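Lab notebook page, bench 4
Experiment: in silico fold of construct C2
Operator: M.H.
Input chain length: 121 residues
Purpose: comparison with the prior construct
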Amino acid sequence: MTSFEGFVVRVIDSRDDLGHLADSTDDLRSELRELGVAADLLEDSDLPDGTKGLGLLAGWLGVQLKAVSLGALVARANAWTKRTDKVIEVTIGGDTLRLTGVTSEQQDAIIETWVRRHAAT
C-alpha cells in the first residue's frame, strides 16, 4: 500500500457562514479520523499560495494517511459530501479532485481515475 502524505482537503460551503464552515470542517475531520487518518486544521502559513485569510482557513484540513488507502479516504469523503450537500476538494501536489453532487456513476469514474493517477506516487 502506498502512503500519501502532505495533501489537503478543503470543505466549500456556499452559505458564506464562517461558523457553519468551521462546524462542517470539524465534522469531516472527525469522520476522517475514524478511518485512522491524521486530519488537522491547517495553519494560515500552510495554506496554498493565494488562499490566505481567516475565512478560508476554517475550511482546510491537512491530511496524512496512515494505514488507510487514498481510495478509502476519498470514498469516505465522497459519502460525507452526499450526506451533507457540501463540496470537498482533495489536492495532492497541485492536482485537485472536486467532490460534488454529480451522479454516483460519474463520481466513481472520476475518483477511480484520480486515485489511480496518484497510486504510483
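Observations: The helical segments are 18-34, 54-57, 70-84, 104-119. The chain has one domain: 7-119.
Next step: discuss at group meeting.
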